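Hi support team,

I submitted a single chain yesterday and got back a structure, but I'm not sure I'm reading the token output correctly. Could someone confirm the output below corresponds to the sequence I sent? I've pasted both exactly as they appear in my results page.

Thanks,
R.
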Amino acid sequence: MKVLITGATGLIGTQLTKECHKAGISVNYLTTSKDKIEDKPNYKGFYWNPYEGEIDENAFTDVTTIINLVGATISKRWTKSYRETILESRTKTANLIYNTLEKTKTSVKHFISASGVSIYPNSESRLYTEEDTDVDTTFLAEVVQAWENAADQFKKLDMRVTKVRTGVVLAEEEGAFPKIVQPIEKGFGAPLGNGKQWMSWIHLEDIVCIYIHILKNGLQGVYNATAPNPVTNEKMTRKIAAYLKKDLWLPKVPGFVLRLVLGKMSILVLKGQLVSSKKLEESGYEFKYVNVAPAIKNLL
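Hi R., thanks for writing in. Yes, this is the structure output for that exact sequence:
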């Protein structure tokens, strides 16, 4: 089996490539950096430039599944121009792949796209499943909607389409987790806002294995990729502090301070969604990290 991964050199893509190789799956990948192109029997890179409409069509040779992970980070300041970058990095890329495959004979039968739980409205009490159709009014929700619409167009090419709505990915060296840990390690840790906002988290090992599970079982549709037991911001903060044997700095960091410092990006820490993983579990996936305490222990 051979897959094509976009975003293969990112946090999830790097680990997913390793997991594919363990499973005997060859990986082609698209990169905008010619310096990152490698040519190995089970790992081949191909150049593309989505903003110029340029792509090496050899990337699709013998590929049966595309795993689309590409997208600019949302953790940089959201200037007007960068908001455009966040959106276009998820839509122009998918559109270029679609337009290329539409014109050529292809062996691709399955398109699996990353997505986000931030499509769901902020709530401290409502549990969201894949059946919920309410969409938040935030910029992030707008991005996720456009991202999923870009994925859905592949159905017109008679492909299975899967959208993986991912929660907060916990990883040792990159992403949200080190940023949460750092102030706690320095003795300045505190819950953010009222601390009651939900963090539907997932360990890096699980999100990678979920993609393999979807791939091997040919699953299609929407799947929430979050651990079975989400936690509030306050509980996450306290669990990390307890493991590090650090006191928390009180009181909680007020929401208005975070809004002054982060601007519109403050929704990343002040809002959250309580998301169900039941559909994924019913498909046969068994989580490695069900509760946050073992995940924190593993990463620290």
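A quick pointer for reading it: The chain has a mean pLDDT of 93. Let us know if anything else looks off.

Best,
Support desk
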